[in-house]
Amino acid sequence: MLTYIARRLLFLPVVLIGVTLLIFLAMSFLTPAQLVSAYIKSPEELKNQSIQELVAKYGLDQPVWKRYFSWMRNVLKGDLGYSVSANMYVSEAIARRFPATLELALFAVIPVVMGGIWLGTVSAKHHNRPLDHASRIFAIVGWSLPDFVFGLIILLVFYGLLRWFPPGRLSVWADNVILSGNFVQYTGMNTIDALFNGRFDIFLDALRHLVAPTITLAYLWWAYILRITRSSMLDIFGKDYVRTARAKGLMEKLVVKRHVRRNALIPVATVVGSMILGLLGGVVIVETVFDYKGIGLLIAKGAERMDYTLILGTSLFYGVLLVVTNLIVDILYAVIDPRVRLE
Amino acid sequence: MIIKKLIRNRISLIGLVILLGFILVAILAPVLAPIPDELLALDPNRDPYRIPRYGFSSTPKPPSPEHPMGLTEGQLDIYHGIVWGTRTAFKVGLIVVSVSCAIGIVVGSVSAYIGGKFDELVMRFVDIFMSFPFLIAAIVITSVLGKGLGNVMIAMILFRWTGYARLIRGNVLQVKQDEYVMAARAAGLSHIKILLRHILPNTIFPVIIQASMNMGSIVVTAASLSFLGLGAQEGYADWGQMISYARNWILGSPGNPLAYWYTVVYPGMAIVLFVLAWNLIGDAFRDIMDPKLQG
After folding, report:
1. Chain B residue closest to A167 (CA)?
2. Binary contact (B292, A322; C-beta < 8 A)
3. Residue B295 confidence (pLDDT)
4. A303, B228: Cβ pair inside 8 Å?
5. Of chain A residues 150-169, which have a CB less than 8 A from chain B?
6. Which of A145, A239, B35, B231 is deepest in the core (most CB within 10 A)?
7. Sign of the torsion angle spanned by Cα atoms B131, B135, B136, B139
8. pLDDT band at B89, cuts 50/70/90?
9. Is A144 in contact with B250 (Cβ distance < 8 A)?
């Protein structure tokens, strides 16, 4: 087990360097003049110096490998450049917006995993019967609804028609309380902060704003998890040890719970990595539709204004985040399924 | 045989019928939505993908006999956009899928055939590409290359080939040690011939099916980028862009939340049906290819 983790950890820097190289490669499509904004320390610099001077100052006319090292030095210091569209440093923008996105993703993951596994189990137990067909249609429709279409429909119904779940992160009054100074922001995640501050009204308001984007984000992945749980359970139902369990007279409920589902969840655990990848990508669209101020909306706004400093910085952040998450998922997977370690 | 099974399966038959409908719309686009005569008179070389504009007000207008699906933001004809958007969807999907699949097949099969350290290196390279969410990666590349449908396609190809490379690599590794490959090698065939004549014909089929089933998701990603304002240019027939036009009107006017329903419902339906058709066929395919699920 330890050797497996050690092997994976040893490999981590290689992948991380690869990720930075890829982003750097993307940057090399830009001209030195365009790149200046990725290097400057404050907007004042642009006023006092010409672009040519800045290009020379930051060594943008230097050979590629030298540029890579000086860029990496900045990145390691946490300096990702100045974003024109967000009007602040990229690192600052990420630090401010990330808790919101994390909150949304966490709220989506739990219903997705629980709901998906449950639906998949139901579907497999009723293989080729009406319930199975119904969940299958649910899954295919979910898989086919682009998130921006589905999100707009949710917005239309639950806000336009019913007025239940407004867009944004908080109502104006709650926002004022948070900014008032009497409210301590421990994590940046409104629901958790509200509970720590003992403000139940703000907690409910934050929750109310989370429902619609969560549903949008979750629906597509429900379908995915359902599908994988179903086929993996059907696979296990045919195994000898399941027949043995049934033959010894075990109740069907216990057969499913103890023997089938536990083993069927192993392939489900593998897709969690790609699900996190998908959730964090999907967040761009969902946050745009619901005007939810997280990293996704930051990227979308930056992309619209061609703010590549911001886009490159946030995608580097994303890349590193995902590499690390995937590593954790893989290690957890090896804990669940000993066969992986022996490979 | 597979076609027969697809037709027998009721779900996939629906998918095939919808898809056939879209193909017909795409082929018949010049007949279904010709460029209006008055615009053709002004500019005989007008690009049919440019949606005709009927006025200057930004507020959408509901369906009428002249404009069966109404006019969206900027008085663009929704019907014209949907019909020509079908061509855009097929164009984007076919180009991205075929080019990225070709790159993936070449890289993946060569990597697996050579094997050893080289294969290890290529696969780590693939891992790095795959560590970015597809949509984010596409945004990054489009933003450094510049906006536009062509750049969107390049961005998607750059980050899509890796999946196919991984898939074909697994297949090639499996058959690489088979007797018939050994026999071909013993007979003194060149590596290229062995790869082209003996290995690829036995490994390529599932990859091509998988790739064609990705048409739906490719079109959705392209539409997402247009929705974010990175894709097609203003007024170009593209479903994603038409939905982004609808965004400002989705909540209707005061007292009438459904006032502008047609701006989102028609383009939304077009894209959902398109993806649904591919997924229905793909779903049936998966069952046909996976004998474990039969019975």
Report:
1. B251
2. no
3. 39
4. yes
5. 152-153, 155-156, 159-161
6. B231
7. positive
8. very high
9. no
User: Contacts of residue A164 in chain B, CB cutoff 8 Å?
Assistant: none
Q: How many Cβ pairs closer than 8 A exist between chain A and B?
A: 148
For residues B130 and A211, give the distance between their C-alpha atoms in angstroms, rounded to a whole number.
Answer: 30
Query: Is B75 in contact with B63 (CB distance < 8 Å)?
Result: no
d(CA A175, CA A172): 5
The pLDDT score that the predictor gives to residue A37 is 65
Minimal Cα distance from A319: which residue of B? B132
- What pLDDT does residue B173 have? 85
Q: Which of A98-107, A202-211, B93-102, B187-196 has the highest mean pLDDT?
A: B93-102
Q: If 0-12 CB within 10 Å is exposed, 13-18 middle and 19+ buried, where does residue B199 land?
A: buried
Closest by Cβ to B229, choosing from A160, A238, A304? A304
Q: Is B133–A318 a contact, with Cβ atoms under 8 angstroms apart?
A: yes
**Residues of B with CB below 8 A from A23's CB?**
140
Show Cβ contacts of residue A278 under 8 Å, excluding neighbours closer than 6 positions.
A220, A221, B133
The pLDDT, as a whole number, for residue B294 is 46
**Other beta carbons less than 10 A from residue A6's beta carbon:** 10
- Residue B53 pairs in a beta bridge with B76
pLDDT tens-digit series, residues B213-246 = 788 889 999 999 998 888 888 888 899 889 988 8
How many other C-beta atoms lie within 10 A of the C-beta of residue A97? 21
User: DSSP readout, A304-316?
Assistant: HTT-HHHHHHHHH
Number of other residues whose CB lies within 10 A of the CB of residue B43: 10
Query: What is the rounded CA–CA span in Å between residue A263 and residue A270?
Result: 13
- Choose among B255, B249, B294: nearest CA to B268: B249
Q: Determine the number of helices (DSSP H) and then strands (DSSP E) in chain A.
A: 17, 2
Q: How far apart are CA A241 and CA A262, in angstroms?
A: 13
Which of A83, A144, A232 to probe the B interface (max B CBs under 10 A)? A144
The model carries a pTM of 0.83
Q: Kindly report the nearest CA distance between residue B253 and chain A, in angstroms.
A: 10
Distance (Å, whole) CA A209 – CA B29: 43
Chain B residue with CA closest to A29: the answer is: B144
Which structure tokens are listed for B270? 């077009």
Q: Taking Cα atoms as reference points, which of A211, A334, A220 lies closest to residue A277?
A: A220
Confidence class of residue B5 from pLDDT cuts 50, 70 and 90? low
Distance of CA A223 to the CA centre of its chain: 17
What six digits make up the tokens of A10? Answer: 């040893």
Task: Report CA Rg, chain A.
Answer: 24
Q: Are B218 and B156 in contact (CB under 8 A)?
A: yes
> Is there a contact between A290 and A339 (Cβ–Cβ < 8 Å)?
no
Distance from CA of B137 to the nearest CA of A (A): 8
Statement: residue B157 has pLDDT above 60: yes
Are B139 and B228 within 8 A, CB to CB? yes
Find the residue in A nearest to B254 (Cα).
A160
How high is the ipTM of this complex?
A: 0.81
Report how far residue B59's alpha carbon sits from residue A98's, in angstroms, rounded to the nearest whole number.
Answer: 36
Which residues from chain A sit within 8 angstroms of residue B227, using beta carbons? 148, 285, 288
Residue pLDDT, tens place only, B95-146: 999 999 999 999 999 998 888 888 888 888 888 888 778 888 888 888 888 8
